Amino acid sequence: MNPNKKTGKVILAGAGPGDPELITLKAIRYLQEADVIITDRLVSETILEEFTRKDALILHAGKQRGKGASTTQATINELIIEYALQGNLVVRLKGGDVSFFSNILDELQALTQHQIAYEIVPGVTAASGAAAYAGIPLTARGYSAGVRFLTYYKEEIWDGKYWKELSQTNDTLVFYMSCGTLEMLVARLLEHGIGTDKHLAVVEQATTPQQNVYSCNIHDYFRQNGGYTYVSPSLVIIGKCAVLHEKFQWIPNNKSKKNYFKPVSKNMDVAERA
Fold first, then answer.
1. 157 and 120, same structural domain?
2. Which residues pair with 38 in a beta bridge?
3. CA–CA separation, 63 vs 173, rounded Å?
4. What pLDDT digit, counting tens, does each position of 250-265 carry?
5. What pLDDT digit, counting tens, does each position of 175-206 carry?
6. Which residues belong to the active site?
7. What's this model's pTM, rounded to 2 decimal places?
8. Which pLDDT score, from 0 to 100, does residue 273 have?
9. Are residues 54 and 32 in the same domain?
10. Domain range spanning residue 107?
């Protein structure tokens, strides 16, 4: 710990989607300098073992949907502020990129409220990592001219007009945190007339040694994959370009259900923060 009473600084950094070699040089530099690292669950243990100081305090503040052991965002905010006000360089390390479906807004609001200096260091987001490691160019010429990043982790209140638009667009649709509701998602798209030229790919534990890709025409999804449970994290790609996985797959499926990322085990308590 830094005993200096001067307020420290917080680095909000992305660690990439899994493969530790996808982290940026800037994020590594800050990890090597950091007094405190507050890390999400979806960060490779290799990064924490190889790129941090031996005397750095590493706090696992993981979240996992449906798990009571998840650390609340309020607790994470408190940790960031507490250690920064002690004069430490704090790295808040998130899986993927910090700006894609993370709670960075809550953390930025807390930092500005306490007048704590910060930097935002981008990372490789799950969408680009999963697509690349599955051999799916998201904006391949003739297949798609745009990409939409979405989430459907609960049954969203989207009206029929929006579902129709999603079903008819030629943009590639990338869904984060949506495998738990995937059957509802597919059913809505089918109900609203998604074309037979659209394919679906689920990239399970993308860019890790446990990566698996499940690909089919979206109209065949229930026949081929109905009722299947995917290992977290998994990312869903829907569109014409998803069919390209079958031609350009360059990593064989692992065919294992082993978790690459450790599940959340328990809430962080005061003793761990001392």
1. no
2. 59, 92
3. 25
4. 999 999 989 999 887 6
5. 999 999 999 999 999 999 999 999 999 999 99
6. 40, 63
7. 0.91
8. 37
9. yes
10. 9-124
